[in-house]
Write a structure and sequence with these properties.
This protein is mainly α. Helix content is 69%, strand content 0%.
Length: 232
C-alpha cells in the first residue's frame, strides 16, 4: 500500500511540474505585451517543485524526475527496488500533464503545436546552441540540481527548508539554461513534450535529454556520497 501511495504522489507531482512549468511556456510566455518570458517560466518551474515538495514530499520524497531518482539511488538515499516503478510513474504523470496542456492549448483558434515546450539543440535551441553546448549544460545543470537536493535533504541540513532550496535551485537552473536547450534536467518532462510536438525532430533529439541528465545526476550522487555520507 505504501508503494502505491508513493507512486501516486510521484504521478501527480510530475503532472503538476509539466502542467505548471511547460504550461507557462506554452500558454503564457509569448502572450502579446503581457507574456511572462524566460524569467516567468523559470519561476513557474521552481514553484511547481517547491509546492509539490511540501504537498507530497512526505509521501514519496518528491522526486518527479527519473534523473533525480537515479541520483538519489547512487547517493545512497533511495532503494534500487523502487527505481523502475518511480520512473514509470513519473513518465505517466508527465505525459498526463502534457495531454491536459495540449487539450487546453488546442482550444484556441488557429492553434499549432509547433515545438510545444520541447527541448532541443541546433536549430531547435532557443538561442541556436549546438549539440555540444546542450550536452554540457544539461550534464552540469543536472549535476548541480542533485547536489542541491542531496545537500538540502541531508540529515544535518536545517529542517523544513529543503523545498525552498530545491525550488529556487530549479528556478536558477532555468534562468541559466532556457536559451540553450529550453531546459530539461528531467527526462520525463522532455519525453512528455516531444510526444506532442509537431514533426519528428523532438523525438529524434530526445536521446540527449535522457543521457545528459542521467549522467549529471549519477555523477552528483557519487560525488555527494563521497563528500557528505549520511551519519558522518
Amino acid at each position: 500500500m505504501q508503494t502505491t501511495r508513493q507512486l501516486t504522489a510521484e504521478f501527480f507531482g510530475t503532472l503538476w511540474l509539466v502542467l505548471g512549468g511547460c504550461g507557462s511556456a506554452v500558454l503564457a510566455a509569448a502572450y502579446p505585451e503581457l507574456g511572462i518570458g524566460f524569467v516567468g517560466v523559470s519561476i513557474a518551474f521552481g514553484l511547481t517543485v517547491l509546492t509539490m515538495i511540501y504537498a507530497v514530499g512526505h509521501i514519496s520524497g518528491a522526486h518527479f524526475n527519473p534523473a533525480v531518482s537515479i541520483g538519489l539511488w547512487l547517493g545512497g538515499r533511495f532503494e534500487a527496488k523502487n527505481l523502475l516503478p518511480y520512473i514509470i510513474a513519473q513518465l505517466l504523470g508527465a505525459i498526463a500533464g502534457a495531454g491536459i496542456l495540449y487539450l487546453i492549448a488546442s482550444g484556441k483558434s488557429g492553434f499549432e503545436a509547433g515545438g510545444f515546450a520541447a527541448n532541443g539543440y541546433g536549430e531547435h535551441s532557443p538561442g541556436g546552441y549546438n549539440m555540444s553546448s546542450a550536452l554540457i549544460v544539461e550534464v552540469v545543470m543536472t549535476f548541480m540540481f542533485l547536489i542541491i537536493i542531496l545537500g538540502a535533504t541531508h540529515s544535518k541540513a536545517p529542517k523544513g527548508f529543503a523545498g525552498l532550496a530545491i525550488g529556487l535551485g530549479l528556478t536558477l537552473i532555468h534562468l541559466i539554461s532556457i536559451p540553450v536547450t529550453n531546459t530539461s534536467v528531467n527526462p520525463a518532462r522532455s519525453t512528455s513534450q516531444a510526444l506532442f510536438a509537431d514533426g519528428s525532430w523532438a523525438m529524434g533529439q530526445l536521446w540527449l535529454f535522457w543521457v545528459a541528465p542521467i549522467l549529471g545526476a549519477a555523477l552528483a550522487g557519487l560525488v555527494y556520497k563521497f563528500m557528505a555520507p549520511e551519519g558522518k
